[in-house]
Amino acid sequence: MNRRLSLYRCLAGLAACAMLEVPQIAWAQSSGAYPTRPITLVVPYPPGGAADQFARTLGHALGERLGQTVIVENRPGANGNIGSAFVARRQAADGYTLLLGSTSTLTINPNLYADTGYDPAKDLQPITLTHQMANVLVVSTKTPYKRVADVIRAAKANPGHIDFGSAGYGNTMHLAGVLFQKQAGIKLVHVPYKGGAPALMDVLAGNIPMMFNNLPALVPLKNSDKVRLLAVADTKRSPALPNVPTFAEAGVPGVISVVWNGILVRRGTPHAIVDRLNREMGAILKSPSFRQPLEKQGYEVLSSTPAQFEALIKKDLAGMHKLTKEAGMKMN
């Protein structure tokens, strides 16, 4: 009888130990052991653009720090909505699928589309801001435009007859054009493309006269005989393009279009993993060896806490609501 009682007590003790082990194992899987397999970084734009290039550089550095491969996966479409919804609604909240978010996907699209397929505030957890880049007005050398004033003069002489390209309807490049028209008192014709790279190719070929594009995409072309860089939509000149004036210097104040980007995961990802990703990425983004080559290409490298990134999203959501409403922009 005593032996049987001892056996029951032993089994009960083992069961209790097993129950205690569950949260410990779960904690280890959610923090210390992470990551145990490759991580995917989703870029919701086509390959070859400025955001894609930055993501690949960051992904390589992050993989080295975490000891796991970081695979960059392009999921373009609907101005970034397709890739963003894929991470926000279809992937597990486990830190193994990251999203490169931007001003477009996190603050413009929710004000533009009736249904983006995701809610940035409810579905996505910010990790850190990574970089920002100004938009630049670039024109084909097949046009007679050598200064911003030339574009304004031609547009006033032929209102609604001069095209400008962008990466897509509602993209920041499009909104930069909307803002330029408003501040200059002109009317242009928007030609949306499926990405900034194909639009730029048409400017280089002379198929469209001009576009706004991210500064890093244009730095390699600063000495090109196919395009002219007329003005930077920022409050200051870029060190990467020191000879290109701001719009204020070119006579059109108020044309500011600076695009920020950052990394997010699905909301509900364990805090330990969010903190680990923020810590590792922060170390990368603050490293001179990482920053300096990118800054020469025209990127302004940033870092932040998750809370700071979240506050920026909320602030710019309200600001973009006003801008898109004033411009009468809406997508069904």
UniProtKB/TrEMBL annotation:
Signal peptide: 1-28
Pfam families: TctC (PF03401)
Keyword set, alphabetical order: Signal
Protein family (similarity comment): Belongs to the UPF0065 (bug) family.
Cited PANTHER family: BLR1237 PROTEIN, TRICARBOXYLATE-BINDING PROTEIN
Name listed for the protein in its UniProt record: Bug family tripartite tricarboxylate transporter substrate binding protein
Organism: Candidimonas humi
